[in-house]
């Protein structure tokens, strides 16, 4: 099959959001389901993986402590929110710059975004 036009493609919306509660009654939201980032900087996947790693550590601890209600998962949002909110703020700022002063992006401002997604893994030890 050969592509003849782009009518079948749907443009993705670049919306950013953060869900306040990531788990409830046996359901856990991870990645874009919990905290969607805009495509700017291409960091959404990294943020999702980092959240999944933190969640896995918390779940593992709950299992070791025989916490069948996984009450400690309440801390997941708190542990991850500052890093994710920082990225969201940077994306918002960069989006405004892109719209108002696009020449700044040609000088390398966009290169900062991958660094913003890196978090300190010392939080995993908590």
From TrEMBL:
Keywords assigned: Monooxygenase, Oxidoreductase
The keyword Oxidoreductase is assigned to this record: yes
SUPFAM superfamilies, sorted: FAD/NAD(P)-binding domain
Domain of life: Bacteria
Gene Ontology molecular function: monooxygenase activity
Domain FAD-binding, first and last residues per copy: 9-80
Keyword Metal-binding among record annotations: no
Gene3D superfamilies in UniProt: FAD/NAD(P)-binding domain
Name of the protein described by the UniProt record: FAD-dependent monooxygenase
Native organism: Niallia oryzisoli
């Amino acid at each position: 099959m050969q592509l003849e036009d782009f009518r079948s493609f749907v443009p993705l919306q670049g919306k950013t959001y953060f869900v306040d509660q990531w788990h409830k009654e046996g359901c856990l939201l991870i990645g874009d389901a919990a905290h969607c980032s805009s495509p700017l900087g291409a960091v959404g996947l990294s943020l999702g993986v980092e959240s999944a790693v933190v969640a896995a550590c918390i779940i593992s601890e709950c299992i070791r402590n025989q916490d069948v209600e996984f009450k400690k998962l309440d801390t997941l949002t708190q542990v991850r929110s500052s890093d994710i909110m920082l990225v969201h703020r940077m994306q918002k700022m960069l989006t405004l710059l892109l719209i108002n002063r696009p020449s700044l992006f040609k000088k390398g401002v966009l290169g900062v975004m991958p660094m913003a997604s890196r978090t300190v893994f010392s939080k995993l030890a908590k």
